[in-house]
Specification:
alpha+beta; two-stranded parallel sheet
Length: about 325
Amino acid sequence: MTKLTPMSDLVRDRNYDMSGDNHTDFVGMNAYGNGNEKIGTIREALTDDGGKLRYLVVEVGSWFTSKEVVVPVGLARLESDGVFFDSLSKEQVKNMNEYHVGQDYTDEQQVSDIRTLKGTDYVAPVAAAGTVMAADHFQDETLFKTPTKLQLLEERLSVNKEKYQAGSVQVGKKVETRTENVNVTLQHDEVVIERRPVTDARPVEGNVTLGAASQSIKVDLEAERASVQKQAFVTEEVEVGKRTETEQKTFSESVGREVLDVTRTGDVQVSGDALTGSTATGNAATGKDDRNLLERGVDAAKNAVDPLDGKIDRR
């Protein structure tokens, strides 16, 4: 019987740090069935004795409460927003064996679930020469081939706008004074004295003594004077409001993008349109690893295998 080991056990028992290269990022990701319907989350990954990734443990709470099933990794399509099982239906999940943490997922259960997924007439491929098994379903690449899609990401600027108080304007009024001259025509009386000599002198009747009687004539003089008054007039009306003006501004920020880095080991030829704009280097020179996270998880599990006997150390 093939012994399956949870990948988390490799991390725990061998103190293997897989977080640095995002080996286990798919654990906890959303899981989707056919029609892109969300069915739950990825709980665990199972590896065989050789350290190769074989199954994903899926919690299907969106379809069946508190049920977990084991799905061959080859049925998974890994995207940035989740793991997609395009051919997995609710009816299939209903008929699959329920998985419990820590249990042995036996060959019988594996075959039973595979036939639920592939049909009751499913026949496993012939086992490799030199093995004791007549058939080996792990040889079926449609079920157990690790997804090889590599996603290239790039950053794009997203600009949001928000309103803020840029300032305020207070409009009031104040008094300014100035000197204003107004021309006014005023009239006034003046005394006019005319002296005319008498050519035909005539005597005064009676006994008259010069200076004995003093006579005077009083003349009242009138004049106009200006009375200055001030009166307010409306000379201008001011309406205060606001309007929105549109202006164009340019903002600059550095963004990054991932490019394909093709690593060649040995005398190999690589062709394809995907190489356009890519960089071809050797692993030793760059130290980069462009495999997707499931492939890196597979190699991480292999590294945790005891090199002496090929068995997983389960201390």
